[in-house]
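lol ok so funny story. i was supposed to be doing the assay writeup but got distracted and ended up predicting the structure for this chain instead. priorities right. anyway since i did it might as well share w the group, maybe its usefull for someone
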Amino acid sequence: MATQYDPSPEVVPTSDLPQAYNPDVNGANVAHSLHGSYASPTSEAPSYHHGHSPYYQHSQAPVPIKEETTPPTDPSVGGKASSGRKCSCLVISLIVALVIAGCAVIGLAAATGVAMKNANDKETELETLRASAAAFSSSDDEPTATASNASPSATDDETEESDTPDITNGCSAEEDVMTGRSYTSEFYNNSKFTIYCNTNAPRDPVFSLFAGSFHGCIEACNNWNNYNVTKKETCEGVSYVPYWSVIDNAAENSAPGDCYLKPGPQTKGKLEDAPDTHAAVLQ
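and the output, tada:
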């Protein structure tokens, strides 16, 4: 037959209990009274009682929990920190304001310098224009000085031309004196022309231009004969109209110039009377 296991607690004999020394008699009485009033619960294990408790447990006093306290904040310290931050912000603001003011002053100075320079330039230009206008006005008030025309080459039937500013070279003022005179060209083969005042050389012109003076028109005829390579006609006479030397006058009359180069043949007998027009015929 197998041994049956009993789970009930085993009672320790009284002789085997450890001896406890308790100098406190009151404590022993308290323990005895506590154990004497203890009733074992009903169970399959047998109940037992002993005269005194084998052990006495001293209850330890609870250790007080030390609360962590936050050190009080010194309002003066916080005020000092806040005041320091305010001072720093104020200093930075003042520096930024000074930089902006400096930039504004520099920009204003530069703009002022440019404006003064422009004003000086305008003043200089105005003074120059005033001086030019004054010089132009004085030149209009004074008689126009012109260079004397070169006198024709000396011949038996030629006389020295008088010094005159007339673009007709004397024909308009001294018709009787100038008519029949010879004019020798100053260029190329020194061609000679006979002058006839207040007359017109017939035939349609081979070319027209603005010569500026009667002698200039004669020189144009001489140049045509030496340098023309476009037409076969030669220039044997000219008709010069001094009124058309003014461009506005020529434009009003649809005139293509004041000098007209005429082809040959040209003779004295074929010349036409024409007031304020002067002719020259190649000799």
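The CA atoms of residues 171 and 178 lie 6 Å apart. The two ends are 186 Å apart (CA to CA).
back to the writeup now i swear
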